[in-house]
Amino acid sequence: MTVKAYGAHAKDKDLEPVQIERRGLKPTDVHIDILYCGVCHSDIHTARSEWGPAKYPVVPGHEIIGRVTAVGNEVTLHKEGDLVGVGCMVDSCRTCHSCQDDLEQYCETGATFTYNSHDPHTGGHTYGGYSESVVVDEAFVLSIPESLDTAKVAPLLCAGITTWSPLKHWNVKKGDKVGVIGLGGLGHMGIKFAHALGAHTVMITRSPDKAGDAEALGADEVLISTDAKQMKEHANSFDFLLNTVPVDHDVNPYLGLMKRDTTMAMVGAIEPLSKVHGGALISKRKNIAGSMIGGIKETQEMLDFCGEHQVLPDVEMIDIQEVNKAWERVVDADVKYRFVIDMASLKK
């Protein structure tokens, strides 16, 4: 099946209209007409070969919202007309320890990601949601609560689950003091989730001018990390830190904020970090850990929580024809806080 899409043909080329092939419907497949697709910084890193050589053309997009238009004859989880989503993965081995534990993102033979992964069905590579439609195995299709504003849901499938998963894994709960480091696409979701879970939520930032935004998102306090007096006042007081900073930075100042036996989870910086002072970890048995998106079961739990509590990202809607400009704005951190593409614009 040939469908319209937007893709990049080289690391130094803009996205442009392309046509791609979607596989025919297999017995457990779901065909989805795409309504909205979020823009993630990962889209840019991949298309520009910043995380290693990409497979071209790159058709990005792993925050996909749409309606089911057809299902294979063995599908039981979804039906025509359902509002559904597809996140960062479209398959995994399903047999390794991680997959058996509903942690497909850590598949020990490698998950099949929504774009730029080897596609075992076609022999080529996968194409993402900057397109008219997609065909995905039902096991990797998520149910979207109809109670949510459909146009705003898409970023939950990457930015949302990336911050939800560590908060749940490290058992953030009512009464905990949680710090969210960095206010961007990930950080703003971290604040919303920590607040909704009942934690005393502190936005930790270098920028005093972000205080108003952080409080509007649900932060109970704002801690300016460059203010030595404030940092001292908060020393040894946090139950959990969610570090969303996307680049290398000095993590040592944040270690002093943590209680004994607590964790700072890194979700943003996919690159070598600056030197970590071992003494800060050893002296109070503190931990630095990492976390990557979430499994399908956990992502569905997050979506259901969002439906119940009306947790949604702050988004700016664009047409697909504006995507190259939007990418430059993402690089310049000029968006509050995620772009979503209205895929109806692909028909223009």
Percentage of residues in helical conformation: 10-25%
> What is the CATH topology descriptor of the largest domain?
Quinone Oxidoreductase, Chain A, domain 1
Shape: globular
**What share of the residues does DSSP label as strand, in percent?**
25-35%
Question: What is the strand tally?
Answer: 17
Helix and strand run = EEEHEEEHEEEHHEHEHEHEHEHEHEHE
> Which CATH class of the largest domain applies here?
Alpha Beta
What is the count of helical runs? 11
Largest sheet: 7 strands, mixed
The CATH homologous superfamily of the largest domain is termed Medium-chain alcohol dehydrogenases, catalytic domain
Radius of gyration: 20 Å
CATH architectural type of the largest domain: Alpha-Beta Complex
Gap between N and C termini, in Å? Answer: 20 Å
Average pLDDT metric = 97
Structural domains: how many = 2
Q: Structural class, please?
A: alpha/beta
Topology:
Blueprint: E1 2-7, E2 16-21, E3 29-39, H1 41-47, E4 64-71, E5 83-86, E6 89-91, H2 97-100, E7 112-113, E8 133-137, E9 142-143, H3 150-153, H4 159-169, E10 177-181, H5 185-196, E11 200-205, H6 211-217, E12 221-224, H7 228-233, E13 238-243, H8 252-255, E14 258-266, H9 278-282, E15 287-290, H10 296-309, E16 315-319, H11 323-331, E17 338-342
Parallel strand pairs: 10-11, 10-13, 11-12, 13-14, 14-15, 16-17
Antiparallel strand pairs: 1-2, 3-4, 3-8, 3-17, 4-5, 5-9, 6-7
Helix pairs in contact: 4-5
